[in-house]
Amino acid sequence: MSTLTGQSHVPPEENLPPGEYIPSPTILWMCALSIALTLGLSFWTFFNMQFRLAIAEPSDWGHIFVVPLIAVWFIWLNKDDITSKAFSPSWAGLGFIAFGILIFTIGSIGPKQLIHHLVRAGGVFWAVFGLMVLFTGWRGLRLMSFPLFYTFVFGVVITKRIMTPITNDLQDISARGAWFCLRLLGFDVDLAGNTLTLYRGLESFPLNVAEACSGMRMLVAFLALGTAMAYVGLSRSWQRILLVILGVPVAIFVNVLRVLTLGLLSQYDSNFVSGDFHTFVGLIWLIPAFLVFIFLMWIVRKLVVEVPVEHSTSQEVSRLRFTAPIVPRAVAAILVFIVGAATLRAAVVQYGVFLEKKTVPLRASLDTIPPGLGEWTQFGKEADYSDAIQESLGTNLFIDRNYVNDDDSVVGMSLHIAYYTGAIDDVPHIPERCWYASGLNQMTDGEVFPLELGQESWLPTKLSNEATGEAYRNTQVEHPVTGRIQTVNMPIGDMEIRVIVFENAKNPSIRTVGGYFFIANGRLTPSSFGVRNLAFDWTEEYAYYCKVQFSASYRVENNDDSYLIEYRNSVEELSKELLPQLMRCLPDWSEIENPPTESAN
Fold first, then answer.
1. Segment 504-538, tens digit of pLDDT
2. Domain extents for the chain?
3. 454: phi > 0 → left, psi -120 to 50 → alpha, else beta; which?
4. 308-323 burial code (b ≥16 CB/10 A, e <16)
5. Against a cut of 0.85, is the pTM above it?
6. Rounded to whole angstroms, what are the CA distances from 352 to 48, 108, 355, 462, 538?
């Protein structure tokens, strides 16, 4: 009589305890591939965004492609313990999978405060957690918990909304640390915000510690490397935790030395602090940093006298064994994922949520904004930003010009316009942070002022903004090249500008005024926080925002603030001519909301 074993194939020479099974390699691979495919499709928006962000910012997030491979290597190193006993699958894993799908759904459709990439990452984590419990039981989860946590700690992209405050703090530490070291070495150096200025005779050599110099990349790399080395090289949990903690000050200190090196090199050639050489210096400093880290691991290991452990010399390779069939569990997990994915899709359609934002190209280049705007004329050439500054800005679609009025009594005005599109969660650059980094002291918290740009001449249209119900208004503008008159729709909302006053620490009589507003998805806001509510509205398929910033410097006597009136008048004069030209370049949001249909032939 023959026995039908189904999924299990037990070679006759193996004496397995009662109730244990060894699935055939074919069954194992089929189950693994089916689960992986279902998992990937169910959480497609998460994995797709991970891939897109890593490709877009490889220097920051390219490592997420390597982290899963390192986690697999951890599992391979522990294969003897993993295969030493049979796994006892637990149906409780289905509950964790369902919980993970619920978390992912909340991170996808709301509440609005919880719609976030990291919340969705938490859902994926719980789902994988559940798969481990479902197939390997609690013992398998315990053995493979570290690779799981390692993958989700270092393999998940952290959005700028969370990373920016941390990066800003690291910039401050790097700049102050480099300034302190240079002073110890006897250099004449000044620190204003995040800008180091070295003096050699009558010459000065400024070095701005931008986001790329913050050390965030080095810190993440060190923590990932340190955690891996601690797991492999140390046997006790407290030793591993201690080594990982020590990696933080090592990474920060080495980055201070990197900024110090760039500061010294800037005296000989300003090109040393930008481009490929800037990156090369960072790579060079990684070598002594790793040596220091290895030395620290040696010290931590010596804190405890280890008792030699006898390892088995047996060459026998154990196979994966289970105390229950795995095929029914694979089918059940696939069904849960399918039901969850279908439910999420239905909810996304029901609530009209878009988890990915499509890009919206400019209708015309910002460079086509004419150099002459009414009585204002461009003075000099546009600023040529380095690659590091452009990386900090996060876009190469910008103009940075100086305008002067034909009336010599009016000071010049700097105009900065930057365009961003397709972002799902971004942090706009504003003077409150950027100018502090340049060494200016903020004197006011920022006050919102209305702007009078002749809005009464804008003519109402029959199209309404879907978000507000307010009718679009349009005006006419002359194309600067063709001279053709165009009709452009103007943005929805109150025309307001946020104005902040800064003091030059080296010359307290100088006041630098910065004002800005944003045009986001066809609407206006003077707040960087308002951009999130407009451009990152989860019910809109497309996203763009444009920052318009005006800055000017005034000499002040006896704390006279009349310069603010002059500033606002200048902004109004310039904006009255600028805004129609800018809207000629920006996307027409009314067309995006109401795309033209093809006429029948």
1. 777 788 889 999 999 999 999 998 877 877 777 77
2. 25-158+325-351, 161-302, 366-383+393-593
3. left
4. eeeeeeeeeeeebbbe
5. no
6. 20, 11, 10, 25, 8
